[in-house]
Each structure stands twice: as C-alpha cells, then as structure tokens.
Amino acid sequence: MSRMSLNGLLRMLTVLVILRVLVLTLTNYPDYFPANFDSLFLQGREQTFFGWYAVAFYLHIITAPLVLVSGLILLSEQVLRRARRLHRLLGWAHAAVLLALMLPSAAVMSRHAFSGWMAGISFMLLSVLTALCTILGIIRASQRQYAAHRRWMLRSYVLICSAVTLRLISGTMSLFDGFSPELAYQIAAWSSWLIPLSLLVATERWHGMRRSLLP
C-alpha cells in the first residue's frame, strides 16, 4: 500500500471514529431535554444546574456537534479545491460559533467539572488554547499565509476533538481496575488533548526536518 493510500485510509478511519462517537453522544441527548439528574453526566448536579451553568450546558451541547462536523468539512481538501467560497463562508461561521458560543460555554462549565479543579483547569486551558489557535488561523488566512492558516486550524480542530478522545480514553480506563472514576476522569481530561496536540506538533516538526534535508 502506498503512503498516499495509507494516509487516506487513516483519514477515513479518523472521520469514522469522530462520527461514531458523535452519534453515540447524541443518543444521550434525550436525558438533557429536560435535564434528567439520574443520567450519567448530570448525576449529582442538581445543586449546580441553574443560572449560567445551565445556559452554558445547553449552548455547549448544541454547538459542539456543529463545530465537530463543520471542522471535518473545512479540513476536506476536496471541498477546499472545488468550493472555495463555501470553505470561506463555513469557516467564518465555524469560527464565530466556536469563539462566541462553544468555548465560552466550555469555560463556564469547567468551574463545575466532574472530579473537581484538576479536570477543571485542564478544560479551562483547553478552551484558551483552542481560541488562540483559531484566532491565529484567522489572522494567517487574512494575511494569505494559507499553509500557516491550515496548520493553526488543524491544531484548533485537534483540540476540539478532545471531546471525542476524552470519551475514548475514559471509556478504555473504565475497563481496568485500580482507577477511581475521579482519577480516571482527571487523567482523561488532560491526556485527551495533550497527547493528540503533542503528536500533531511532533509530526509537523518531523515533516519540516525532512523537507529541510531535501536537496
């Protein structure tokens, strides 16, 4: 199998995993309309589920799937080649929803994260870094530095996908004894974005070194 075919297969598998986790997450939404405090995520949150937290919660669960799906479309090279206007318009909508609604709501929710401040700090830092990567991506696009634009927006999307990797990691850890639910969630909260972002940056550096060594 050629390297190009392997890369295409990996991209397809990644998309399928993201969509699969998204669909499974959406199946829990009947527990949120209205709020069911016996459901897994809302269990024990009666004391905090009011005011700005409740507003942030509903903003987040509505906007997060939209941002996940729009990000997949925006990263599609076929869409970029064949529908540049769509890419531009969808990109502005994606950034607006992300920066104005999804990330602020995530920051509000981080104050009451399951397992306490350790996970909460991770989610707050994640929101800040995602916003930073997105803003830098927008700036690079306005400067017509499209390679840098794509690089920053890819980093932003990898951070957005921490919602997917969080569920994969926490689900995997639940299969093993020795981890309390709180500890497992704290580990998943940090590793869900630190590991993917580190791998992406390392891959970018490796490709950059390879290009610099070419004659």
From TrEMBL:
It holds the Pfam family DUF2306. The keyword Transmembrane applies. The keyword Transferase does not apply. InterPro entries: DUF2306_membrane. The chain crosses the membrane at residues 12-30, 50-77, 89-108, 114-140, 152-171, 183-202. Signal peptide: none annotated. It comes from the Bacteria. This is DUF2306 domain-containing protein. It comes from Tuwongella immobilis.
